[in-house]
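Encode chain A's predicted structure.
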Amino acid sequence: MTKNTIYALSTVFGKSGVAVIRISGKEVLSVIKEITNININTIKPRYAYFTDIINKSTNEILDKSLIIYFKAPHSFTGEDILEIQCHGSKAVLNSVLKLISQIDGVRLAEPGEFSKRAFYNNKMDLTEAEGLADLIDAETEEQQKYAIRQLSGNLKNLYSSWREELVKTLSYLEAFIDFPEEDIPEDLYQSILNTVFKIKSDITMHLKGNNVNERLKNGFKIVIAGSTNAGKSSLINTLAKRNAVIVSDIAGTTRDAIDINLDIKGYPVIITDTAGIRETDNPIEQQGIEIAKEKIETADIIINLYDATNSKEDDALLPSKTIYVANKIDKLSEEEISKIPSSHLKISAKQNQGIDVLVENILSIIKDNFANSSNYLITRERYRVALEECLYYLDTFSLDKEIELSAEDIRLACRSIGKITGFVEVDEILNNIFGSFCIGK
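Encoded structure for chain A:
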């Protein structure tokens, strides 16, 4: 990692009341001296200064700003940092950023470089860095909640505890490699086996929640399925609270699967409106029906919607993750409504009747999935791959083998976990991780 001083706009470029420019590196004090009249010999860390930003070559005042100096190592990156809080007009930002770029030893930051420096300076591990990225990208309350937990060290503490136990086990094995004439004491023998068994069990349980973790990040998949004219498009418009899809009384209007992203009380969901399932000779509609069936197979929740005025629900062609919903009850008498199976929800999508109950049922299924996953969510595919690799080496471990081979299994298991947190050489994955960050983070 280069030691250049870097700068970047940390807020969105455009018109705003306040924008933040961040500078990190050994030339920070020089930057303060170049663009302000503040005496750098008396400047106080973590103290807000209201000052002019000046182009000293022309004596032109570019803006009146607040600046805060953070002295290393007590900063986000572990280096000297300057934060400039200036006005957020394009003219101000362009002029201030241009002025900073002309200072020797200062360059524009690469994507994620501030966070990468924080990692290299032991301010955070890789899971915390990725928790920060998730927090920036969070669109729902639950995504925000789990990102904060990861940023606070939730996963780091879990994975580090497993790695520490394995390192301790490895140290015992290494000791007996150095003294081959000694036998492993029975109590230590059992302790090593118990440690490996427990970590294997913990990792296996942790991996079981993987699908739910991906859903939290990308959205739970909810498919609205059923026959033509059941009111699927009307229901999705009601849930979305806007005209997201076309509604028509003409059967077969929906020919393709249409995905709508929603926030249901803090949980991200992708609701899919599908083509009505029926027999048809129309090749385009047939293709839409095939797509609908594929969506049903991969859905987390299926809303099997049917027209209650036909007095007959659709055939039970859907799996157990289905909520059966009778639509158009506004057209039925109380007596007709009473004949609908009690296990089926009763709604009118057009009249917004029973929608709250349907939403609560969806929410209940999602929460039940989360309850089975604990607070430790695998938020990256690379975590899962590394943990499965660790599990493989723990499965191959045995004290019946040559002790050098047993130690190597544990060493490789440690390395697999270390790939997640960054306690091994992981330069090959760092650029992929930090490259997804915005420039000023």
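The chain has 15 helices and twelve strands.
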